[in-house]
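Reopening this ticket.

The earlier resolution said the output was attached, but the attachment link was broken on my side. Pasting everything inline this time so it's all in one place.
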Amino acid sequence: MSPESQGQNEHYLSVFRRTFRTWRGNRPFWAGLFTMLGGVPIAYFPYANMHLGNVTLAMSTTAGAGSLIIGVLLITLGLTMWFHSIVRVFAGVAAILLALISIPVANIGGFLIGFLFAMLGGALSLSWAPGEPGTEEAAPAAGVPAEAAPEGPSFTKDEQTPEHSGGELYGSAVPQQEPAQYDTTVEVDGGRHRAG
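Inline output:
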């Protein structure tokens, strides 16, 4: 073997990229991103001024404070989805409700841009579920060679019955179902009880 390990000469960007992918995969990343992107136009447009040549067009409305609160709450919910993903369902429902409230309050939901992003982020947050751990084969116990490790039951694709290696029976504590001990045939008179 070479005295150098494989990981020593990796570029720091590839290490950062791999670490970021692992971090992103453990949380509803896209839900949080879309929710934050929805909060920005909702909070920004009521306070923005658009310049057309020498003419300044102010888009402020009477509900400027409401728009700012909704936008800041959406950004906060997006960060909550990233850094506290256990409450992703609450954050998703809250993001959807705030997006719906932003339609009458915040310039038609940030001219529908913020509304659509916030709705998409909330829906993604509701539908996200943590991934299952990988089904890698268990390594044999330390100090026990692979040949000496006991093998459990294995299943073939055609049959769903275990093929046991060796003389041991795994899962023998599971009781077998007994056949019915009473007569299940239907009476001739339509299944009614004799007394009725």
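Reporter confirms the inline version is readable. The first strand starts at residue 49 and ends at 52. The chain has a mean pLDDT of 77.
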